[in-house]
Specification:
354 residues, alpha/beta, TIM Barrel, 2 domains, 9-stranded parallel sheet, two-stranded antiparallel sheet, 14 helices
Length: 354
């Protein structure tokens, strides 16, 4: 499978763009464990053209992350075109347009999935972004606004006609947010539409190797994108790839190995958000750091601690810890139980993640 001149291996796995999740610290871990394509957090076009520092920081990419896309969102065609030009200067491999984020602060302002209610504007934005940059442009969107407007089959053709080089489809409507099961049937219909010539990437509820393989075999997609299933579990990519190659499940990382990776991620987040040095001075282990707060989402979602009986108080303490010393002391104190309670692999409370 190829997007423009970027070639991917058979059955490629993509890391979904997720706000407050897919920063360099997490992306590099996912890359190490086998993710074939990475995406930045989504970037506001309006904030980018206003030169907002936090937004500009999201454009930071590293050579070892490639191929990588910078994802932008907004509702104004002129601003989106200008933001795409600015993003192109950061030298990503792809510019991706977010037409799928369902959260109110985005969709309610006519951006993200909000554009599913204004298709002419969506298409104008797409054309203007394609014409503004030399890089390949891709789009990520949903099945439609609600069950009465599941328009993705026709919309996919229209987006292709605007010049995009690949299309990612999340198998829910905006009205669904992240509730219920992702419906891959229409994703398959788009892929099997003989008029479609661009790669189709499927997204939604891929949390196991068996499900990933089913999405390739049953729906014919060119790539599978993994979002919430990777939060707190960046090694999911290596597990799935091992299953693809051998038909068998990879030996699970030990409990201590999983905890060590989580601690590595936390330290990387601290480096990314709090310090510029290559090494963290020992004194920082006792200082309240932004990187620790930023890591709480991954700790809350990680399957490492899911299903441990009577874990509530420990979880609360873990999520309230404000120094590396305190947090690592709590993590190190957790022992693997002999038995775990049944858990849902996707935490439905993470509704702010697209």
């Amino acid at each position: 499978m190829k997007i423009s001149n970027i070639e991917f291996p058979d059955k490629p796995l993509f890391l979904a763009p997720m706000e407050d999740v897919t920063d360099p610290a997490f992306r590099l871990l996912c890359k190490r464990f086998g993710a074939d394509m990475l995406y930045t957090e989504f970037v506001s076009s309006e904030a980018l053209i206003r030169d907002v520092n936090r937004t500009k920081q999201k454009l930071t990419i590293y050579p070892e992350e490639r191929p990588i896309a910078i994802q932008i969102y907004g509702h104004d065609p002129v601003s989106m075109a200008e933001a795409a030009r600015i993003a192109e200067e950061a030298q990503p491999d792809i510019i991706d347009i977010n037409f799928g984020c369902p959260v109110k602060k985005v969709a309610g302002k006519g951006a993200g999935a909000g554009l599913l209610r204004d298709i002419p504007r969506m298409l104008q934005i797409t054309k203007d972004v394609v014409n503004a940059v030399q890089l390949p442009v891709t789009v990520k969107t949903r099945l439609g606004w609600d069950d009465d407007s599941r328009i993705i089959v026709d919309l996919a053709e229209q987006l292709q006609d605007c010049g995009i080089r690949a299309l990612t489809i999340h198998g829910r409507t905006r009205a669904q947010m992240y509730k219920g099961d992702a419906d891959w049937t229409l994703i398959g219909d788009v892929k099997n539409n003989q008029r479609m010539q661009i790669p189709i990437i499927g997204n939604g509820d891929v949390t196991t190797a068996e499900r990933a393989l089913e999405c390739f075999n049953r729906y014919g997609v060119d790539a599978v994108m993994i979002g919430r299933g990777s939060i707190g579990k960046p090694w999911i990519f290596s597990e799935i790839k091992h299953f693809f190659q051998t038909g068998e499940h990879k030996q699970m990382l030990t409990f201590d190995e999983q905890k060590a990776i989580l601690k590595e991620h936390i330290i990387a987040s601290v480096k990314w958000l709090d310090v510029d040095d290559d090494l963290i001075p020992d004194t920082l282990f006792d200082i309240r750091l932004k990187g620790i707060i930023h890591s709480r989402r991954h700790l809350a979602a990680s399957p490492v601690f899911k299903g441990i009986p009577n874990f509530k108080e420990t979880r609360i303490a873990m999520l309230r810890a404000e120094t590396l010393n305190d947090l690592f002391r709590i993590i190190d104190s957790v022992e693997e139980p002999l038995q775990r309670e049944f858990i849902n692999p996707i935490d439905e409370t993470l509704t702010c993640i697209k």
